[in-house]
Write a structure and sequence with these properties.
Helix content is 32%, strand content 26%. It has 495 residues and is α+β, with helices and mostly antiparallel strands. The structure holds flavin-adenine dinucleotide (FAD). Flavin-adenine dinucleotide binds next to helix 1, strand 9 and strand 16.
Length: 495
């Protein structure tokens, strides 16, 4: 029985689906959009505040965006790109605040200095990173030091109890942010729910989808009463986080063949001692250990959740076979198919250091975790910290240019050739670049409407820096970044 028809169906109630729904409703308020979420509320998986680190990724402190070349120089291309992608996200947040779709900015985004901190053999790396990045207007305000005293002013916990002769280095930049993506999802849900043509269904799990001549029939199970219904739609977005991968397989589209996913779990140490929490006010990112996936950089983070400060350290990685925190132990084994087992095996053989790293992390107990924390907070005591699971990420495995399976750490948007289906796979840089990722979906799947219905102009109005190389246009940079910062109440220094 076709119980419901709608223009657009979004599977999954996380930041990606809500960003896409908001953009589409802004472009055409008459569109019918329905979001189906399998849990009892939205944003309970990766977008939930404790399941991610809430870093507004802008490459201000994350050292994985500037890999080192064999000659000691630094690759800056990715850092420049991510810096500008997050700016587009901030312009979207500012647009939503001005339109009343998001509430006061401090309810979901807060200014927080971003600090990189390294010691011993990594000091030259950070020095070169600073030299190269700060030559660009995008990173001009980044300050570098090797002075224990100055670092102590920036983040006392890093220096207290540390040997005075240990070589250390840090960079700091004021313009960093901490974001509560889960809160943002709830606010967008509330605003969209007041619009005609928008519906949200929780406790509805997508269990299958069938291609029709124009569009899709989506099979959904009501997890409360067990009934199954089918929804007919012209366009479907699989924004189900780790759950997108099995649904992509079920869609049977040729573009989804050969992909597989590798789950990596996360765990934080959370500080229980308010005195220590109040001593720290920054996001401090260090350098990843050998074999660690790029998103496992150790970081000591202030989080601001509903106006209250918290402190966490991690993430420690872990392996389990679930694709979602609320997933099934069978997710990983059941994802194996004739078209993806070989790439999976090849990716495993090519990533031995990652496997060793994961085994080490899984076997690590609380004492081992404290040892890692003590590298960053020498005075940390076991009694002040407690463990808490973070979200689950699914890394993409696909064939590379040589045809061999490779593990990817980015995100990938897969679209059907007729543009009626898009799926988001992968994990990084994540929620911070949701707007750019969802714009890719709009550009690919709504190409005709962009040209025919003036969507390009509307997008420019919403996101003035979209498609603009800010680095080459200082006037534009100053004008738009300062407007965004003013609306979001975050710092901005003109250049
Ligand atoms: C440990 C960790 C730290 C991170 N830190 C950061 C950070 O600092 N900054 C950053 O920008 N990003 C970070 N990320 C990444 C970020 O959290 C994710 O990229 C982002 O939240 C993904 O949003 P999403 O909407 O795709 O997925 P999710 O928020 O996971 O939403 C997917 C939704 O789909 C639902 N679903 C699944 N299957 C089905 C189905 N079959 N039917 C219906 N619904 C379904 C799920 O229940 C869920 O609600 C981090 C992630 C992790 C795990």
């Amino acid at each position: 029985m076709n119980s419901h028809d709608t223009d657009i169906v979004l599977i999954g109630g996380g930041i990606m689906s809500f960003t896409l729904a908001t953009i589409l409703k802004e472009l055409d308020p008459s569109l019918g959009i329905a979001i189906y979420e399998k849990l009892e509320d939205v944003a309970l998986e990766s977008s939930m505040v404790w399941n991610n680190a809430g870093t507004g990724h802008q490459a201000l402190c994350e050292l994985n965006y500037t890999p080192e070349n064999a000659d000691g120089s630094i690759q800056t291309k990715k850092a420049f790109a991510i810096n500008q992608l997050y700016e587009i996200s901030k312009e979207f947040y500012a647009h939503c605040v001005r339109k009343g779709l998001l509430k006061a900015p401090e309810t979901f985004i807060n200014p927080l200095p971003h600090v990189s901190f390294v010691f011993d053999e990594n000091v030259p790396f950070l020095r070169t990173r600073h030299e190269q990045l700060s030559a660009s207007p995008l990173f001009k305000n980044m300050v570098y030091t090797e002075d224990h005293e100055l670092i102590k002013q920036w983040a006392p916990l890093l220096i207290e109890g540390r040997a005075t002769d240990q070589r250390v280095a840090a960079t700091r930049i004021e313009e960093g942010t901490d974001v509560d993506f889960g809160e943002m999802v709830h606010q967008l849900r509330d605003s969209l729910s007041k619009m005609s043509g928008f519906e949200i269904f929780t406790n509805h799990r997508a269990i299958g989808l069938d291609k029709r001549s124009s569009g899709w029939d989506i099979r959904l199970k009501d997890t409360k009463n067990g009934t199954i219904k089918t929804v007919r739609t012209k366009f479907v977005f699989l924004g189900a986080g780790g759950g997108a991968f099995p649904l992509l397989q079920k869609s049977g589209i040729p573009e989804g063949k050969g992909y597989s996913g590798f789950p990596v779990g996360g765990l934080w140490l959370i500080c229980k001692n308010e005195e220590i929490v109040n001593k720290h006010y920054a996001k401090v990112y260090g350098k990843a250990s050998l074999g660690a996936p790029p998103m496992s950089l150790p970081h000591l983070d202030t989080r601001i959740i509903h106006g209250k400060k918290h402190l966490l350290f991690g993430p420690y990685a872990g392996f389990n076979t679930k694709f979602l925190k609320h997933g099934s132990w069978f997710d990983f084994p059941l994802s194996m198919r004739s078209d993806n087992w070989l790439p999976m095996l090849e990716a495993g053989m090519r990533n031995v250091p990652l496997t060793i790293y994961l085994v080490e992390q899984v076997l690590m107990g609380m004492r081992g975790r404290m040892k890692k924390l003590n590298l960053y907070v020498p005075n940390a005591n076991i009694g002040d910290w407690t463990e808490q699971f973070a979200g689950q990420r699914v890394q993409v495995i696909r064939r590379d240019a040589s045809g061999h399976g490779d593990l990817q750490f980015g995100t990938e948007v897969i679209t059907s050739s007729d543009g009626s289906l898009a799926a988001l796979l992968g994990a990084s840089p994540g929620a911070s670049t949701a707007v750019d990722i969802m714009l890719q979906v709009v550009r690919t799947c709504f190409k005709e409407r962009i040209q025919k219905d003036g969507w390009e102009d509307k997008l420019r109005e919403m996101l003035p820096s979209y498609g603009f190389g800010l680095e080459e246009n200082i006037q534009h940079f100053n004008e738009h970044r300062s407007k965004t910062a003013e609306t979001l109440k975050i710092p901005f220094a003109a250049i």
